[in-house]
Design brief:
By secondary structure, the protein is an alpha+beta fold. Helices cover 30% and strands 11% of the residues. The protein has a domain at 1-14 and 37-67.
Length: 74
């Protein structure tokens, strides 16, 4: 969508969300506690890139903002 409109994509990394809302909680049965952090990365220009190139660059930026224990396995 951003690519068709020529708009930049702003990648966001969410750090520690599983501490606030564990994956085994289907619905919150108790108030969430803890802290998570949102990292706002520099915009990625979408013009003059293929969809695959744009996806790859945005994904890399998101992963860069995560701590080692939250990064995907290679």
């Amino acid at each position: 969508m951003a690519q068709k409109g020529g708009a930049p994509v702003i990648p966001l990394s969410i750090v520690g969300a599983s501490n606030v809302m564990p994956s085994h909680w289907m619905f919150p049965y108790q108030p969430a506690s803890g802290v998570c952090k949102v990292v706002v990365h520099a915009p990625v220009e979408s013009t003059e890139k293929t969809e695959d190139e744009l996806n790859r660059e945005v994904r890399e930026r998101i992963i860069e903002g995560l701590p080692e224990e939250q990064r995907p396995l290679e």
